[in-house]
Amino acid sequence: MFRKAAFGAALTTALVFGGLAHAGYDEGNALYAEGKYSEALQEFVDAGGAGNVDAVYRAALMFEAGEGTAKKDDQAMEKAAAWFQTAARAGHTGAMKKLAKMFADGRGKPQDPVQAWAILQIAADRGDKEAAAQRDALAETMRPGQREAGKRRLEKITDLYQGS
Fold first, then answer.
1. pLDDT tens digits for the chain (164 residues)?
2. pTM, whole model, 2 decimals?
3. Which alpha helices (DSSP H) does the chain contain, by range?
4. Could you tell me the residue range of the domain that residue 17 belongs to?
5. Which one of 39, 72, 105 terminates a domain?
C-alpha cells in the first residue's frame, strides 16, 4: 500500500512540475516574442530548473546572445556554455552542436577541438546530419592524431550525453 501511495505521489509531483515547466516555457516564448528578454530569460531558467530541456536550451541561447542579461561578456558566455552542457547531457542535439562550437572556438569553455569532435559525433550518431557535417568540417582543421584522440574521448563521454 505504501509503495502505491509513494508512486502516486511521485507521479502527481512529476505531472504538476512537468506542467509548470511546460507552462513556464510557453510563457518564456511569449515574453521573448514581445521583446521582454529579462522576463523571458527568467521563465526559461525557472522552467529549465523544473526539468524542461528545451527551456534550458533557450536560456543558453539567450545567455550566448546577451539577451535578458546585464551585458554580453565572458561570464555570460560561461553561463551559456554551462546551460548548453546541461541541455546537451540531457540529450538535446541542438545544445550538443552549440556546446561543440564553444569548445572548438574556445568561447565559454577552454578551446578543445577533440572534445568538440566527440560531442558532434554523439549528435551525429543520433541522426543529426548537420552535426555530422560540422564534425567532418572540424576534422579537416584538426592536427594529426586529434581525430584518433576524439575517438578515444568519445568512448569516455558518450554515457554523459545520453539524456533521460
1. 433 333 333 323 333 344 445 668 999 999 999 999 999 999 999 999 999 999 999 999 999 999 998 766 778 899 999 999 999 999 999 999 999 999 999 999 999 999 999 999 999 999 999 999 999 999 999 998 999 999 999 999 999 998 75
2. 0.83
3. 2-33, 37-49, 53-65, 74-89, 93-105, 113-125, 129-141, 146-157
4. 1-72
5. 72
Distance separating alpha carbons of residues 129 and 135, to the nearest angstrom: 10
Residue 159 lies in a domain: yes
Side chain identity, residue 118: A
Residue 155 within any structural domain of the chain: yes
Q: Which amino acid is at 95?
A: A
Q: Quick one: CA dihedral 38, 34, 46, 41, positive or negative? A: negative
| AA identity, residue 94 | G
